[in-house]
Amino acid sequence: MSNKSKKDSALIHIATPFVLLALCIGLFMIAMIKPSDKIRMYLNLAFMDSLKTTPEAVGTGLVVRDNEIISDYEGETSDTGEFIRPKFGEMYAMMECSAFDITIPVYWGSNSELFERGACQSSGSVIIGDKGNTVISAHVDTFFSELNKLKKGDTVTLKTNYGTFVYIVKEQISFNKKDGKFVAPSEDTKLTLYTCKRDILGNADERTGVICELDEKRFYKSAGEGSSN
Fold first, then answer.
1. Which of 23, 59, 109, 121 could anchor a disulfide with 88, C-beta 3.0 to 4.6 Å?
2. In a domain, 12, yes or no
3. What is the pLDDT of residues 1-47, one digit of tens each?
């Protein structure tokens, strides 16, 4: 009887660490459900493989709206105002960069058709000018072919129909498409621009771009006042 008790006690001592480990793993997985959802949302950006299988990627029911964005607003402005949230497939901004002479249309959402028309912002990132990380990407052989010319101190201006927002380049970045560090949600108000890294071997896994800090925001006197619609 004594030997059986000793065996039972030994089994309990051996099993306890494994039970505790399993319990900790289970609690960790539950705690990570929400954060992983957010990370996955940001990873569903331009050039990610998941875009090939989503309904948005194949353009099912996609309605593209090419809005006319006011480029020279002359009315009253304020450093606070209202945002106009766009619909998927809607052009809602024009981008100008001090380092190269091209004006780039920016669409809300990302799929192959929209990438043929301009730069695309993931609908999982924050609207231009709002608090957080605004993530915009485009193809390296079209609209972001000169993105590598942006250096620290250059400016990026985004004009919308609710205001104009000026960003200053703070950092150049390079990362693998599986690394979500630069495209993840942020407490800081910033703009992240990126594209595929040019590679003669055709490696599409590497990304290059810049991180910009919001320097100036000019909301139109009333939301949509700058719109021609």
1. 109
2. no
3. 555 555 556 555 666 666 667 776 765 565 554 444 444 444 444 44
Structure tokens at 184: 């993840």
Q: How many residues does the chain have?
A: 229
Question: Which segments within the chain are labelled E, that is strand?
Answer: 65-66, 77-78, 90-97, 100-108, 119-121, 133-137, 155-159, 163-176, 190-196, 206-220
* Alpha-carbon span 93 to 91, nearest angstrom: 6
Please report the pLDDT score of residue 74 as a whole number.
Answer: 86
Any domain includes 145: yes
Report whether 121 contacts 86 (CB < 8 A).
Answer: no
Q: Is residue 28 part of a domain?
A: no
Q: Of 229, 217, 163, 154, which is closest to residue 189 (Cα–Cα)?
A: 217
pLDDT score recorded for residue 138: 96
Domain span holding position 124: 33-220
Pairing of strands 163-176, 155-159: antiparallel
Instruction: Give the pLDDT of residue 229.
Output: 42
pLDDT tens, residue by residue, 103-131: 999 999 999 999 999 999 988 899 999 99
Q: What angle do CA 117, 58, 91 make, to 5 degrees?
A: 30
